[in-house]
Design a protein that fits this description.
By secondary structure, the protein is an alpha/beta fold. It has a single domain, classed as Metallo-beta-lactamase, Chain A (4-Layer Sandwich). 21% of the residues lie in helices and 28% in strands. The chain contains six helices and 14 strands. Helix 6 links the parallel strand 12 and strand 13. Helix 5 packs parallel to helix 6. The longest helix is centred in the C-terminal third of the chain and has 11 residues. The termini are close together. It binds nickel (II) ion (NI) and manganese (II) ion (MN). Nickel (II) ion binds next to loops.
Length: 228
Amino acid sequence: MSFSFSWYGHACFGLVIDGKKILVDPFLSDNPTASVTSDDVEADYLLISHGHSDHIGDSVAIAKRTKATVISNFEIASWFQNQGVEAHGQHIGGGFEHPFGYLKLTQALHGSALPDGSNGGNPVGFLLTVRDGNKVYLACDTGLFGDMRLIGEEGVALAVLPIGDNFTMGPDDALRAVKLIQADHVIPVHFNTWDLIAQDPNAWAKRVELETDSNAHVLEPGQTFSLD
Ligand code: NI
Ligand code: MN
């Protein structure tokens, strides 16, 4: 199995799993920190965590250009289907064996209204089991919740957590999340896109290293972390 995680700024990232390209929450055109453009990014699948514009982003245009299949909650999947995009709807607690691995939707404490005011259902995170059993937890936009412990009980190799505060967990709660999940590796996202969510990711990473057994990896937009 080969697995890589590339951060494209804000909460947009690309996973490559055994050659399959999975793009998550592609907010690029209006993202001041984006390291790829909507016209260039490649995708076989798009994962959409919730309906907010900083996550839906350029996804309709990217899905139409790349013919990628959108995977999201049922409401958002239907919203894409109504625009002529191929989509696969799931829901919280439900998993499905996709060609890139077994993907389960997890709860997230957040909102999910779509940019046009449509009902985006409940926001979600993703727990992805890749073929050799390694698990990757993408918390996506959420506040801290105690059942992160249950997700951690599955044995998580990599957890991707928001630390920006204001809209999601801030650094303190994200550190508590690390203690609940006990992943081997953690990567912070959803910070420094705007002043409103300005944070020092290196200070956070230092606290992770001092107070937990997890390894924190601070990426710059455009950088890649690989699991082997
Ligand atoms: Ni949001
Ligand atoms: Mn967001």
